């Protein structure tokens, strides 16, 4: 309690929140959170290993999947330090500089993941619309440039955030709503005008996540138009089946994001536990489930993973 009072007095740190109103229940989440992070690392590492080892998977679709796996792991690792601090070590205090650094990386990798999903939608569009030129259009150089562009865009649009937060005075409460740092969460604690921060956040969301969602939707409209022009029903199903895993990954990212945004905007009457749950689902669930979805729905990856485990078992 003494540390908390000192923190409130000098405002050189924030206090993270585990389960709102139930700090005694925090240790109960330590094991499931540890399991989620372990599954994230194991699942995405398996995907990356399989794609690297199997020469038949050295195709544009799987290169984009590798970028998605790297982004998922990076996003999870951005939240890991503060999650461990709150739920494992019961030390919720975090310095303002460390909080701003974590905030930067969480937002960068979140926006980068949206950009990667757009890239994967473009990949599926090219594969279905012009299969004969698929490999010649999406060459290794083009894929690398697309990946760099996705991360560069994310860094550029998030770069002002640390400076916009750093300029704000925090002379009231410094208790955050989550067990990690977000721009909108820290902004509400300021005792000065946050109009610039609000406008900046709105512009970033519209020009990145909003625009990305529109581009993905347009891509699938064009994909569906192309598929409906295929005469054979079997070929139609085959073409659509190649998109299923990406559609799942897209829904896993955007549905929790939209849900968390709507609850934050219109669900102020709801329990803080609901807000925390939705925010954690948005950040923690997609990195866990994406490798599972691609392993189950992509025959080549599923077969290679089975072969890898059978080889290890026979060797043992």
TrEMBL record:
GO molecular function, one term: G protein-coupled receptor activity
Keywords, ordered alphabetically: Cell membrane, G-protein coupled receptor, Membrane, Olfaction, Receptor, Sensory transduction, Transducer, Transmembrane, Transmembrane helix
Biological process annotations from GO: cellular response to lipid
Location(s), subcellular: Cell membrane; Membrane
Primary localisation category: membrane
Domain G-protein coupled receptors family 1 profile: 43-294
Topology class, membrane: Multi-pass membrane protein
Keyword Cell wall biogenesis/degradation: no
Pfam annotation, one family: 7tm_4
Sequence intervals crossing the membrane: 28-51, 63-88, 100-122, 142-165, 198-223, 244-267, 273-294
CDD domains: 7tmA_OR51-like (cd15222)
GO cellular component, one term: plasma membrane
SMART domains: 7TM_GPCR_Srsx
Gene3D superfamilies linked: Rhodopsin 7-helix transmembrane proteins
InterPro entries: GPCR_Rhodpsn (IPR000276), GPCR_Rhodpsn_7TM (IPR017452), Olfact_rcpt (IPR000725), OR51/52/56-like (IPR050402)
Keyword Transmembrane helix (UniProt): yes
Family of this protein: Belongs to the G-protein coupled receptor 1 family.
Protein name, per record: Olfactory receptor
Gene name linked to the record: LOC100963238
């Amino acid at each position: 309690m003494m540390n908390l009072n000192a923190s409130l007095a000098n405002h050189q740190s924030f206090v993270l929140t585990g389960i709102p109103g139930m700090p005694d229940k925090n240790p109960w989440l330590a094991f499931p959170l540890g399991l989620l992070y372990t599954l994230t690392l194991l699942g995405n590492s398996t995907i990356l290993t399989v794609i690297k080892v199997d020469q038949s998977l050295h195709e544009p679709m799987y290169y984009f999947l590798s970028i998605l796996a790297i982004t998922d792991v990076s996003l999870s690792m951005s939240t890991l330090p503060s999650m461990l601090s709150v739920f494992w070590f019961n030390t919720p205090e975090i310095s303002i500089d460390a909080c701003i650094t974590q905030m930067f990386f969480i937002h960068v990798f979140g926006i980068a993941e949206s950009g990667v999903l757009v890239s994967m939608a473009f990949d599926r569009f090219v594969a279905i619309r012009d299969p004969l030129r698929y490999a010649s259009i999406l060459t290794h150089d083009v894929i690398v440039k697309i990946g760099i562009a996705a991360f560069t865009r994310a860094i550029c649009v998030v770069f002002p955030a640390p400076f916009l937060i750093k300029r704000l005075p925090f002379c009231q409460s410094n208790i955050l709503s989550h067990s990690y740092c977000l721009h909108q969460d820290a902004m509400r604690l300021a005792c000065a005008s946050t109009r610039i921060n609000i406008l900046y956040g709105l512009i970033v969301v519209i020009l990145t996540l909003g625009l990305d969602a529109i581009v993905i939707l347009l891509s699938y409209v064009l994909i569906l138009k192309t598929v409906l022009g295929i005469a054979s029903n079997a070929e139609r199903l085959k073409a659509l089946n190649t998109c299923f895993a990406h559609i799942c990954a897209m829904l896993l990212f955007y549905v929790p994001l939209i849900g968390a945004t709507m609850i934050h905007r219109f669900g102020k009457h709801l329990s803080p536990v609901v807000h925390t749950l939705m925010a954690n689902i948005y950040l923690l669930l997609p990195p866990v489930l994406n490798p599972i979805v691609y392993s189950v729905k992509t025959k080549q990856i599923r077969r290679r993973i089975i072969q890898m485990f059978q080889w290890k078992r026979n060797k043992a």
